[in-house]
Amino acid sequence: MSLKIKAQFLILTLALLSGCGGGGGGGNGNPSTDSNQGNNGSNTGGSTQPPPKLEQVDNTGLNSPSSNTGAGSTSPLILALKSGDPSGLSSADRPTLLKLATDLAARYQQQQNAAIADIFGENTLNLSLNHSTNSSEIGVGFRTIATPLLTADDGSGMAAIAQYGKGRGLAYGADVLSWIANQSRETQHTALFTRAFNWVLTSKAAGPLASTVKFATAAYSASDVSKMIAKQGKTAQSISCDITASANTCWQDADLLVFGSGSKDDPALTELVRKYMENGKAVIYMHLGWGDSAGGRKVLAGMGMTLGGYPGNYFAPAAGVSIGNTRTIADNIKRSDQMTALVSTLNFMAQEQPALALSQDSSPTNPITQVHNELASMQGNGINIFADARTDLYRLLVLWADMYRPDIQYGKINRDTAPGTFLRTFASDSWLAFNRSTTKVASTGQGDYMPAVAQSLPVSSSAETIEVTIAQSGGITAIGRAAVPGKPVYIEVVDAAGASNLKVQTSYVRAYGNPLTDDVKEGYKRPRRPQSFAIPLQTGTENTFVTPFGGPLYLNYSGATAGKSITLRIRGSAKYAHFDFTKPQSQAEIDEAVAAMKRKDFGWQTAKLVGGEIQQTITYANSAMGNKTPEQYIVGEIKELLFDSNHIANGYNNMPLSSNVATLCTQFGWDCSGPIHRAPGVQHFVGWIAACGFLCSGNPSDGFAGVGGTGWGHAHELGHNTVQRVMHIEFNGKGCVVECDNNILASAHMLRQYALRGIDTGHATDHPGLYQDVLSNRSSGLSGAAKVLDMQTRLWDMANGQDPMRAVHFQLGFLFSKYRAGEAKPSMQSTLDYFTLLTKADRLVAQAWDANNKGKYGMARFADNKISNPDLLFVLSSKIIGKDLRNIFAMYGITLSDNALNSVSDLNLPMAPEQFYALAAGKHNQLATGQWLDLAASTPSYPF
Which residues is 218 bridged to in the sheet? Predict the structure, then answer.
């Protein structure tokens, strides 16, 4: 559809851009272009220049077949709308762009709301519907094409309509057409479905259908379609036609094209469905279950819709798959309206400072975020909005955002006193296109994300070949080059090394502040989402990427082989403070990265290690590194102390086996080096903003601090992400649980750190406190089970402190040193050998259970590997230490099952006497300073 531009600006509403994007030929009539919902002359973000005259814009629809020719086709605005390059525009174009976007959104509002109102036109309609969990969600991908028709009570999409070109579409997440045609289910829904069916075919919900309706199907029952048409007294004529085949021409003979979720996945299917609608065909899609459908996704994409992720609605609650019988028609129409809020927000943005209190009501920002999410989805799926006929509105919004951005000054915008400025900044931060070559940047920098000086960093003029090391089959990893704000980066995939779904993005962060909730007194501190979307990299071509915020470049990938490298050719990028110790680095490369750190002209420092990656602000990086060399800081501190200590205690196979561990693994017949023991994944640490508290676990793990290897904070967070169940000891909801079990790994880190570096900092394992609990328990006068339970109450409760609880695992490690290593006093190495064997055995029991040789892990009396954590700790520790530890475990208040006790009895191990290795307060890491106490016959006083 091509609409002529009117002579007056106020009635334009962008016929220029509506083209094929708005559904035409519809029963909602031809919506008026005179919406009068513009800015009424107010400026749009500081410019008071009048809008350009209409002679400056093209007189044909941008998305129509003739859009590449016509008067005015060389105007800067038209060129920008076609290319995505805003460099020919100026701040004077801001009012025009915002006005055009507002009017176009209003046209879509009229068109879509009219269609929905027509379908729901009868006040007697019963809207209740239950798809059941054998269904999938139908979402809106392009709000310029698709409109929600039915949403479940929790807001999940159940059905949608589409308007594109001269045609219409209808999609349901369940096979409702069959239910209604056969009156087999949800028969109360018959009237509404019939109206939607008629609307798709005729543009009017009341019809009537033509006397004969010709149709073709793909992976759908022609009989059911015939019944649906016959129910309305019309003749159905099925046409034999493969409507999924890109070269077919028989589609032209049909009025209706019906697809099921089993439709063949043709590469051109999305474009084919779009062509069908553009040429006036009615398209219906029914999803026949909860399973995924590659062909169905392409059909829906052609209608501007999306399909829910695997496994559909299989686990959805009732509210996610049904509509209650209290839903009114007015409620449903309101739920389907997806443009009114956007139009309202655009009108607010056109006012210098509208009367808004965003701290109390931030809802005007919701439409901005919705568009942001839609842009992320499009670009994440490889769609270039400036080369797609469905994106007229999005193009206008992105170009407006480009032209507003240069004037942004982060840190100086108050959402309550300057709500208009805040809204415009929020929108400019949100409406982004990264898969193009040009954008605009905030000239004063991007707050604490990126300094203004970064914009002048030199970038490579010729392509560099860069090998990106891959540590696991899928993930996100630093490339080692940076995107400079506003400067394009060109990336070619030379060798994907078998990996699939290669994407590029800036930064790997999960916490980046929120201008809507940050302290209003501090102002709008940084871009609302400074990291880019993940943009697909196509092979066999040079991919273009640009960001207004800059940032370290990361490769997002899957389907790779761990240990290989992916080869890229990159130009237009900058070098910065990046250290990659997963491969050899020359001293010149290290010196160059150090110099970049000291210059502080780029906002970030990154590092790659085997098993871990670091991204931190340049300020935090300099603070954490101090006067140390990169080798001392990255390798000696972060790798050898933080990561290696955790990996040794967890028994991962990237750490070599000690002689004691290797000997016992052979003796036990355990596989201690196989793939079961591979580290679970690369752990990322980010020093900038924490998602929770001061430091927060996760991957990435983040914090309001630089990443350091000698404190316990990052060891604690790494422990959260790697802790195994043998460290989680719980009785009736109490015990060494979360925030204690992971700290056992942090304590192991501290023990090793002191032995290797002589650094003795914090994070005590309270051996004196543990012994005091033993003394109190022994003086209670109790015996047998009552005595064990008394000790359990005293010790295993976080309310009493976790430090004594954590000491128990280390006391077991000390017993290993005594009995297996033959040491008079425990050493760090032998104590960590115990942890290595314990965690290896934990994984072996879980993943390599030997039903024919259960004694291999000391569990002969257990039918399977479903064993409690205390039992697991007891059985494995007894086997590893070589002693029956039941008296030790009773001394620590650990109750055990008969299966555990009898399994250890079957091992015929000598009984371990009650012993305790005493360490003075504050000497928990200085093992040589302690002494053994024999508690079998007496209860000696603590010697320190």
Answer: 259
Average pLDDT over residues 888-893: 98
Per-position DSSP letters for 389-421, written without gaps between them: TT-HHHHHHHHHHHHHGGG--TT---TTT-HHH
What residues does 734 pair with on adjacent strands?
Answer: 731
Residue 607 phi, psi (nearest 5):
-150, 145
Tens-digit pLDDT profile for residues 713-741:
999 999 999 999 999 999 999 999 999 99
Task: Walk me through the domains of the chain, giving residue ranges and CATH numbers.
Answer: 9-110+339-430 (no CATH), 129-327 (no CATH), 452-608 (2.60.120.1250), 647-934 (no CATH)
Asked whether 229 and 236 are in contact (CB, 8 A), the reply is: yes
- Nearest alpha-carbon partner for 746 in 791, 705, 695: 695
Given the DSSP bridges, would you call strands 701-703 and 683-687 parallel, antiparallel or unpaired? Answer: parallel
Mean pLDDT across 352-372? 97
Q: Which residues lie across from 465 on neighbouring strands?
A: 569
Buried b / exposed e along 652-673 (16+ C-beta atoms within 10 A): bbebebbebbeebbeebebebe
Q: 779: which residues sit within 8 A by CB, 6+ positions away? A: none
The Cα–Cα gap between 16 and 719 comes to 58
Q: Could you write out the DSSP letters of every residue in 72-127? A: TTTSHHHHHHHH--GGG--GGGHHHHHHHHHHHHHHHHHHHHHHHHHHT--TT---
Ordered DSSP codes for 804-824: HHHHHHHHHHHHHHHHTS--S
Token code pair at residue 426? 């929020």
Instruction: Decide if 516 contacts 522 (C-beta within 8 A).
Output: no
